[in-house]
Specification:
about 80 residues, mainly alpha, about 85% helix, about 0% strand, rod-shaped
């Protein structure tokens, strides 16, 4: 082995604990990010499926009778015109 390789090996051996610690931390970070992405994907798929399910349902339509309000407003305008 050349002297350069020997020096590189000694340097790597001296910093092996720090290198292993960094690799372990990066592995945990990668797993965490992938877990978050997977959860976001599952949530998005669930929401989309729920939205499709809800859009397929028949919606209840309510009719509102505004005759009483219209009569009241008309009576107010008639009272204002007579005064």
């Amino acid at each position: 082995m050349s002297q350069e390789k020997v020096d590189r090996y000694k340097k790597e051996k001296a910093n092996r604990k720090q290198i292993m610690r960094k690799q372990k931390i990066m592995g945990i970070v990668r797993k965490g990010v992938l877990t978050l992405v997977a959860l976001a994907l599952i949530a998005w798929l669930g929401y989309s499926a729920y939205d499709v399910y809800e859009s397929g349902k028949e919606r209840v339509v309510a009719e509102v009778n505004y005759d009483a309000v219209t009569d009241y407003l008309n009576s107010l305008t008639e009272d204002a015109q007579t005064e």
